[in-house]
Write a structure and sequence with these properties.
Distance between the termini: 9 Å
Structural class: mainly alpha
Order of helices and strands: HHHHH
Largest sheet: none
Radius of gyration: 14 Å
Strand content: under 5%
Shape: elongated
Helix content: over 70%
Number of strands: 0
């Protein structure tokens, strides 16, 4: 994928920082899901803020799919009570799509 032809910001020093931060946050979210931490309101709130930041950063670089998926995940985390609705894991489908889109940047 020739990302530098899509957006000249890809050549900036900010781009590797973006990739490192997103990679770190995706791994943390994966670990939280595996440990069934999404039932805790504070954890959901924290990750909603993380996905809000990913949304903003990806928008800055022009990654529209990552932007959209991050916004959807943020919305789900802000609205769904996983403790009272544990089967509501549509967020995992979105998260898988987001990880797939992010892998395209590697």
């Amino acid at each position: 994928m020739e990302t530098d032809k899509i957006n000249p910001l890809i050549s900036s020093r900010a781009y590797p920082l973006f990739k490192d931060e997103v990679s770190k946050h995706l791994a943390q979210f994966d670990a939280a899901v595996s440990a069934d931490k999404l039932t805790e309101a504070e954890v959901r709130k924290e990750f909603a803020m993380v996905f809000h930041k990913i949304k903003g950063s990806s928008g800055f670089f022009g990654f529209s799919e990552i932007y959209s998926l991050s916004g959807l995940i943020e919305g789900v985390l802000n609205k769904v009570d996983f403790k009272n609705n544990p089967d509501h894991y549509d967020v995992m489908d979105l998260f898988t799509q987001l990880k797939d889109e992010f892998k395209k940047l590697q």
